[in-house]
Amino acid sequence: MCAAGLRADVFAMLAACYAEPGPDIAGIINRLCSQNPISGDTPVPEIQKLKILFEKTDINDLRLDHARLFMGPFQLAAAPFGSVYLEAKRTLMGESTLEITEIYREAGLEMANDFHNPPDHIIAELEFLAYLLSAQAEAGADTDAAQNIEDIKQRFINRHLGAWIEPFTIKLEQGAETGFYRLLGSLTRKMVTAEPGF
Length: 198
Description:
The protein is mainly α.
């Protein structure tokens, strides 16, 4: 598998790690650990550590931490929405949310009907990055298609995911009660900021 395809898989699995922990989380972690993503010129050791932390943590503790961090009902320790970090008033569904929706459409995508979060949720944005990397890998020698995807990817990283990943993951690391979510935050930041063009 080419480098872009490998990174696509890693970002898709990182996105899945932000969903409410269910019976499939162990399989996701195992699949993530079977990859060997490169950040710069070195493998990412945090992925193996994430598996160790997952195996040491009770699933109910993960569910409680996930709810407190990302779902509420009270103030979220690490709101997983880009607009909270990009909008001056720190509100949901602002101009940045409309803009990310337009970028998805430009790439030929619409939000799935069964996705019940705003378009700038961390899961949606990580999945979109995975989609773009997969599309780059499939473009191959078609330089026009590859360049179009690269242009969308750079705009997306510079104006959206790359612009809010650091404050979000810092809040996640500071607010998490489990080592799993603390490490997930730092791993996500490391992988996003290692993307070419960040």
